[in-house]
Amino acid sequence: MSARISISQITTVSAPFASDLGTYRAAGAHGIGIWEFKLAPDSLERFRQSGLAAASAIPAVPSILPLPLMKGPAEPEARIEAICAGIRRLAPFEPSCVLFLTGPGDDRATILEGLRAIAEEGNRSGVRVVLEPIQREFAQLWTVVSSLDEAAALIAESGADVGLMYDSWHLWREPLEQIERHRDRIYGVHLADWREPTRNTNDRILPGDGVIEFGPILEALRWDGLFDIEIFSDVELPGSLWQEEPRAVAEQGVQKLRQLLSAVSA
User: How does strand 204-205 pair with strand 193-194?
Assistant: First the structure.
């Protein structure tokens, strides 16, 4: 199994873009998961000089419907346009995909319209776009889809050319058969582990430090792209990884994921 590792920038949320590039390279990562909110005027030039590849990218406004825990426009139309603008801004980095969420709520017609508009922008910009399902325990804060099957059904209803994102923290309890069904449409992989007990929606830990059994998941995925470490962590909680120095988190993350991938390969 390939062990090409990247780090999503939310993992080192307090550090600027330029610092992340150096930190991730020093940690031995091969790529970076770019978050639009971290971009600076010189980010593209610095990125191209870094030698890192771009994994899944996330627009500054990440969902069609508003998110209770994140600031952003209240009107879905403005949010959809912001996602499309984010795709255009992120496209020069040539990410493996740009992901987005539905957001929570019952306005299905608007979600379907958003899927179609985002897919069209992705096509114009030459970037794959993917819908990310969010795990059920906290779904009311983020999404109307919590599995690959549900996300695929929504996409099919829209008729849009949209792929899927696999995130271990969200989907580790879902049937592996869903990975088999939708493997060819998965364009990005996020990895984080589940703390037991998990204290809130931002309480992830590094792969190998929690209760997820990664072997069967990785075998089902057969993923040959970048394995992107993505850690959301609440600084107000004891043991939060966002309290730690970014370089230490990056080094630990790459080391732990490399050991995990090696063990699965063996």
Answer: antiparallel
CA distances from 199 to 13, 29, 176 (A): 19, 29, 25
Q: What range defines the domain where residue 70 resides?
A: 5-265
List pLDDT tens digits, range 105-150: 999 999 999 999 999 999 999 999 999 999 999 999 999 999 999 9
With bands split at pLDDT 50, 70 and 90, how would you rate the model's confidence at 266?
A: confident
Banded model confidence at residue 217, pLDDT cuts 50, 70, 90: very high
Three-class DSSP labels, the chain: CCCCEEEEHHHHCCCCHHHHHHHHHHHCCCEEECEHHHCCCCHHHHHHHHCCEECEEECCCCECCCCCCCCCCCCHHHHHHHHHHHHHHHHHHCCCEEEEECCCCCCHHHHHHHHHHHHHHHHHHCCCEEECCCCHHHHHHCCCCCCHHHHHHHHHHHCCCCEEEEEHHHHCCCCHHHHHHHHHHEEEEEECEECCCCCCCCEEECCCCCCCCHHHHHHHHCCCCCEEECCCECCCCCCCHHHCCHHHHHHHHHHHHHHHHHHHHC
From CA 104, how far away is CA 155, in angstroms rounded? 16
CA distance 237 to 260: 26
User: CATH code at 260?
Assistant: 3.20.20.150
Neighbours of 153 (CB within 10 A): 12
Structure tokens at 242: 């966002």
How many separate domains does the chain show?
Answer: 1
Q: Which residue has the tokens 């795990």?
A: 135
Beta-bridge mates of residue 53: 31
Using left for φ > 0, alpha for ψ between -120 and 50, and beta otherwise, residue 35 falls in beta
